[in-house]
UniProtKB/TrEMBL annotation, chains A, B:
Keywords: Amino-acid biosynthesis, Cytoplasm, NADP, Oxidoreductase, Proline biosynthesis. Belongs to the gamma-glutamyl phosphate reductase family. It comes from Selenomonas bovis. Residues 6-288, 318-380 form the Aldehyde dehydrogenase domain. GO terms for biological process: L-proline biosynthetic process. Pathway: Amino-acid biosynthesis; L-proline biosynthesis; L-glutamate 5-semialdehyde from L-glutamate: step 2/2. It is an enzyme of class 1 (oxidoreductase). The gene is proA. GO terms for molecular function: glutamate-5-semialdehyde dehydrogenase activity; NADP binding. Catalyzes the NADPH-dependent reduction of L-glutamate 5-phosphate into L-glutamate 5-semialdehyde and phosphate. The product spontaneously undergoes cyclization to form 1-pyrroline-5-carboxylate. It catalyses: L-glutamate 5-semialdehyde + phosphate + NADP(+) = L-glutamyl 5-phosphate + NADPH + H(+). This is Gamma-glutamyl phosphate reductase. Pfam families: Aldedh (PF00171). It is found in: Cytoplasm.
Length: 417, 417
């Protein structure tokens, strides 16, 4: 089969459908999302069967446990996907909301309203739930979507997307608005990244390798998501118990996600008192610590951290630890090594808190809270398509609004310039 | 000289400066912009001298008149640049304005505030005024800027940027925040488009060739600007006099700019009555008309329009004309051939007006007004860095807000997840 040609046909069909979808009434979109949820639950056995085959193959390939866990579906996870679709249906429709309005001295009436982006490409890896989540969010915001999942989940994704498409089209979504790419070759990804004029944006979701490849090669605009080298800075005035609680939560509550902490920085003035308490708490949670020279003087059981450690997203129970002379050094370390995701300071000093928030360059900058809160649901958006680590278009957790653009509507009475 | 190395050093210096610039008080930025304006006016003779040399070389190369006009500076144009900087100084500072704020059930206080993008690359062609305009807007929004102008204006741009840098740094802008690229080779452009991690965005301003090259090759995010294949649709119920007035204005008031009209569509029901009136008015303004078969039946003096005409930005006194059976056909033609810039309908029918605005896919969709109004000043933004024809980040005229990103600031009291 000619991959390039088939891919282009899919994108063209999506683009055609996007015109009608852009002006589809909210009620039809919501009804379709609920029908998609029902279809997933009613035909769960089809999805589970496909998933069992994916899992079997992945096990035979010797893929590691964390990977298998991301790939695995069960009735509970399918119910979660369905619930996600129903929650998206219940959210306010972002389309046609206005956010700027003026009448100019010459009488022109100018309004800016939200419109869909058009056609969105989603390129993702192991998690089959992305198929349902992304489809629901894109459709709700009036966008057609081209979904390209990873090869390991191909059977699960195919089963899910077939059910979703059938239900969506039956409920009035324009035919072609939901496209699933069955090609698992890299060629399909490369075809998508060069569909300027057909795709309006590509959102990659997955590991650093995938995201880097797409950012470097795409001529379609990309929203970079995901990689998180997040820091906790324990300031001179920190409440030790609070600092330990926040650090343990940020590192261990879900080590594989992007808002988990990778490096802890501690103010030199308290390092000697604080680090032993931290080390004990981390040890209880089986976290391997890697320290700089000063940290290892205080806690000799730590391994030595190398330069590479400071920029590594472990995604695992490993934490690098560095003693810094002051707040300025902490901020400088973070701005050098972070990925622009989430950073937190634990402090009782208002000035330090304020300066940290002002000078640290990241999507989310916390005072006295765990970085684990960087998430569309926790931020009150009701949904999330990913977490942007770039500065253009959207930064931080992306809800429905991030899947829209704007349009100026101008009324005149014959004005010329 | 090693272009790659020097370019990287400039970008690194800009990035370092951007940290301090991001938190510089508004007063210092405004004072610097006014000092830059004063410097331009006081040392105008240096700029004019350099410009005279550029013009001489351009004439010797036989460049055409419209090009020479864009390149040419005189005292009035230098005063305009200075006034532009003073107006930018007078605009509200977009930085730290908040646009989202919530207290979550767990007590977390979440605010979203505007922050600078960081380092902006501007790649432009003949107009030396872009050097001052772009520098002023980028600095006001707290961004460092790397300016790379065209080879034909190299002496003018060098003179302007030296004056601006000296004045800016003396007034407290962090050293390095304003960088001018003296290399006119394509290699300098290609170096910029691959500075991921140093440049946060590239905004190209110039012809379709330059913009296309950058969009296709850049791994740094790009905001596409400029190309405008704009349409006027004269509906069945249009007031003929108004339609002619709007069409003549949209075509002839400034044919070389991107918001000028390139194609006129007319409803079949009125084509026979309307087109002769239009043709007379356009003839008076020396506009060459190129019609489809039906238009040429009515006005046989028109040349024949080819398929290529429908997607051509003439930038000149040429207009393509097509007779369409109805509103739907007009919308379909526009959505097929436009560049997402500006479109207008002339109509007395409310339903047609509404449907046109809803279904046409463009940054600015007008009813009964000339497309020439698509402009940051006309829209009330007080300034303009360009007109985005893409949907991501910013669409339509871009003012200061388009040069910013956002950051979430979160206050807690020890919350963990």
């Amino acid at each position: 089969m000619d991959i390039q040609k088939t891919m282009r046909e899919k994108a063209e069909a999506a683009k055609r459908a996007s015109r009608a979808l852009a002006i589809l009434p909210t009620g039809v979109k919501n009804e379709a999302l609920r029908a998609m949820a029902d279809a997933l639950e009613k035909r769960a056995e089809l999805v589970l069967e496909a998933n069992a085959q994916d899992l079997e193959e992945a096990r035979a390939k010797g893929l590691k446990r964390s990977y298998l866990d991301r790939l695995m579906l069960n009735e509970g996870r399918i119910r979660q996907m369905a619930e996600g679709l129903r929650q998206t249906a219940a959210l306010p429709d972002p389309i046609c909301q206005g956010d700027y309005s003026t009448i100019r001295p010459n009488g022109l009436e100018i309004r800016r309203v939200r419109v869909p982006l058009g056609v969105i490409g989603i390129i993702y890896e192991a998690r089959p739930n992305v198929t349902a989540d992304a489809a629901g969010l894109c459709l709700k915001a009036g966008n057609a979507v081209l979904l390209r999942g990873g090869s390991e989940a191909i059977r699960s994704n195919t089963a899910i997307s077939s059910l979703l498409m059938k239900a969506a089209y039956k409920a009035g979504i324009p035919e072609g608005a939901l496209q699933f790419v069955e090609f698992t070759d890299r060629e399909a990804v490369d075809a998508m990244t060069h569909m300027t004029g057909l795709l309006d944006v590509i959102i990659p979701r997955g590991g650093a390798g995938l995201i880097h490849h797409i950012v470097e090669n795409s001529s379609v605009p990309v929203i970079e998501t995901g990689t998180g080298v997040c820091h906790t800075f324990v300031d001179e005035t920190a409440d030790f118990d609070m600092a330990v609680k926040i650090a343990v939560n940020a590192k261990t509550s879900h080590p594989s996600v992007c808002n988990a902490m990778e490096t802890l920085l501690v103010h030199a003035a308290i390092a000697e008192d604080f680090l032993p308490q931290l080390a004990r708490a981390m040890e209880e949670k089986h976290v391997e610590l890697r320290g700089d020279a000063r940290a290892r003087e205080i806690c000799p059981e730590m391994r030595e951290a190398t330069e590479e450690d400071w920029s590594t997203e472990y995604g695992d129970l490993i934490l690098s630890v560095r003693v810094v002379p002051d707040l300025a050094a902490a901020i400088a370390h973070i701005n050098k090594y972070n990925t622009g995701h989430s950073e937190t300071i634990v402090t009782e000093n208002l000035e330090s808190a304020h300066r940290f928030q002002k000078e640290v360059d990241a999507a989310a900058v916390y005072v006295n809270a765990s970085t684990r809160f960087t998430d569309g649901f926790e931020f009150g958006f009701g949904a999330e398509i990913g977490i942007s680590t770039q500065k253009l278009h959207a930064r931080g957790p992306m809800g429905l609004e991030a899947l829209t653009s704007t349009k100026y509507l101008i009324y005149g009475e014959g004005q010329v310039r």
